[in-house]
Amino acid sequence: MRRIDHPGPAASERIAAVTGSAVPLRFVLEPGLTVDEAVAAGMNGADCIGGFVEFRGGRCEPFRYVKPATSSDPRYVAWYSETFEPAGLVNVTRACAVVGIRDGKTFLHCHGVWDTSEGTRMGHMLAPLSVVAEPIEVTGIGFKDATFEAVPDQETNFTLFEPAHRAGADPAMAGKGALVAKVRPNQDIILAVEDICSRHGITRANVYGIGSLNEVRFVGGTRVNSHATEVLIRHGAVQSNDGQAHARLVVDVVDLEGGISSGEIVRGDNPVCVTFELVIEAVEV
């Protein structure tokens, strides 16, 4: 499997996950607020400190985003493009945001597909620079006692989300039906999901999340030959196969040239590039 060498020392533990008490989310992003402000208001209203929200339509103006890019700085294996600023209303046709905390405030890591005046595009939404233009209903899963916390990562030199319990919360009292998790570089994302589920006794689950992969291999033979991509899980599920967790992921991908690809990815041949953040929701049999 392909491998990418980051400049810093590699952590010995390649996956991380914490259990949490999860609640379903459904709230409206109010016009006039930036996307991160609007999501923060909805999370606060649900008394949640972290989780995952999904957009299925909704317009913003102004709207700002970036896509993956090569890095001229040896401290990073990849970076971000210049900021794109499409004119007029932008329709967020599909987007996924992992919600956590950075510098003590609600912070979004959001990948999505949007229709702009220049055509359909995909990338990394700059939520503090994108403004809700009309009420947008979002859904998701929130956690009252667990979140993603942005911390410096020695391996990649990025500031990345790490799963964390609420300060002062007793991990032993956390719910057992849902996880916040992250996968580090060079781990196959499907095998990692299966490993996380097996460690926590989960044999059936829904899987949500976003991240980056080092090239992408789809079922059926299609390939994305780009060492840095941005990815969102369109549909993720874990099923029991002879008592073992078996995962399938359908994703959207944007490459270094801005090309968008979609489909089910191959198990065992899709290594993480920088990070992959997940919310895993156990399904009762």
List keywords for this structure.
285 residues, mainly beta, 60s Ribosomal Protein L30, Chain: A, 2 domains, 8-stranded antiparallel β-sheet, 7-stranded antiparallel β-sheet, 2 helices
Structure description:
This protein is mainly β. It folds into two domains: 22-142, 60s Ribosomal Protein L30, Chain: A (2-Layer Sandwich), CATH 3.30.1330; 176-282, 60s Ribosomal Protein L30, Chain: A (2-Layer Sandwich). Helices cover 8% and strands 49% of the residues. The protein has two helices and 21 strands. It has helices at residues 35-45, 189-199; strands spanning 15-20, 22-29, 50-55, 59-60, 65-66, 68-69, 79-80, 90-102, 105-116, 119-125, 136-143, 146-152, 159-165, 178-183, 205-213, 216-217, 223-224, 230-241, 244-254, 260-264, 272-282. Strand 16 (216-217) and strand 17 (223-224) form a beta hairpin. The model has no long low-confidence stretch (mean pLDDT 95).
State the helical fraction.
under 10%
Radius of gyration: 18 Å
| Strand tally | 21
CA-CA gap between termini:
34 Å
Secondary-structure-derived class: mainly beta
Shape: globular
CATH T-level fold name of the largest domain:
60s Ribosomal Protein L30, Chain: A
| Count of the separate structural domains | 2
Low-confidence stretches: none
What is this entry, summarized?
The protein has 285 residues and is mainly β. The chain is built from 2 helices and 21 strands. The relative contact order is 0.22.
